[in-house]
Amino acid sequence: MVHPAPDRPAPDEASILELITRGELEVVGRLVDASNATLLSSLALDGVSGRCVYKPVAGERPLWDFPSRTLARREVAAYALSAATGWNVVPPTVLRDGPFGPGSVQWWVDSGATDPDGEPLAAEPGAGLVDVVPRHAVPEGWLHVLDAENYDGSSVALVHADDDALRRMAVFDAVANNADRKGGHVLRDAAGAVFGVDHGLTFNLDEKLRTVLWGWAGDRLTAEAVEVLTRLEADLSPDGPLRAVLADLLSEQEADRTHTRVVRLLAKRRHPRPGPGRPQIPWPAF
Fold first, then answer.
1. Whole-number Å distance between alpha carbons of 57 and 59
2. Which end of the chain has fewer beta carbons closer than 10 Å to its terminal beta carbon, N or C?
3. pLDDT band with cut points at 50, 70 and 90 for residue 10
4. Domain map of the chain by residue range?
5. Is it the case that residue 111 has pLDDT exceeding 80?
């Protein structure tokens, strides 16, 4: 049984950033399904408390296609990009020291409900916006991504809602070159805001976009997306403010390539399509 959390005002972004940057951090658990060390932690500062996800650099597994010990910085770079868009795709995230050394610290997205012990429950993976359904039961108005076979041999479809927040996330992922947009990396908080999490596999020099959000592939970008991308193009120019932030977190070539992806999206003014010769969907998809 779950219980509604006591009514409390939602902290603003500045307060959250202060808490995750300066708060006393204590590890309280581990998210065991994650491939790298992903530690649920508590925060406390001046009588204010909260929860976060702490990913120490020391717990990153080496990858053949990403430079070693860079995933935490990519998490923070993704937040910087999200903040620059104004879309708030990524929860507040900082790079700081913790019990196991430096790592990324990201505000915990909870559902607003608690367990019988009063502990906050995590937000629902997929946020009710991404799902795997029987092939004949695609919800009306949802977008079809692909058909597949379930573990029991039944036919299923990967689908997602035709939702504005998801569409912004798809554009964000195209700019960040997100190689790991699983359905479970889409969360909705207690106030109904939709967030994406787990952005360690981003900003690669090679084309790596792997996502469950292909429903708009080839469609024209919205006017809002074009406006945001136009602003990003300036922010990522050599003297732009976002470029300066990314330069402290990524390689110069990775920052250059991010700017190039924005220029390419503006030239085509369409959502990217899946390309040949590489996986297009993360595994597992959900």
1. 5
2. N
3. low
4. 3-126+161-268
5. no
Spatial distance between the Cα atoms of 236 and 207, rounded to a whole number of angstroms: 19
Task: Answer left, alpha or beta for residue 153, where phi above 0 means left and psi between -120 and 50 means alpha.
Answer: left
Query: Two tokens at 214?
Result: 């292909």
Tokens of 18: 């202060």
The mean predicted confidence, pLDDT, of the chain is 91
Residues in the chain: 286
Q: What is the 3-state secondary structure (H, E, C) of 84-95?
A: HHCCCCCCCEEE
Continuous H helices in the chain: 13-22, 71-85, 164-176, 223-235, 241-247, 252-268
Name residue, tokens 């207690």.
190
Question: Measured between alpha carbons, how far is residue 92 from residues 15, 75, 104, 109 in Å?
Answer: 10, 10, 10, 10
The residue that leads in pLDDT, 91 or 124, is: 91
Residue 32 has pLDDT above 90, yes or no: no
Reading the block at residue 128, the tokens are 């009710």
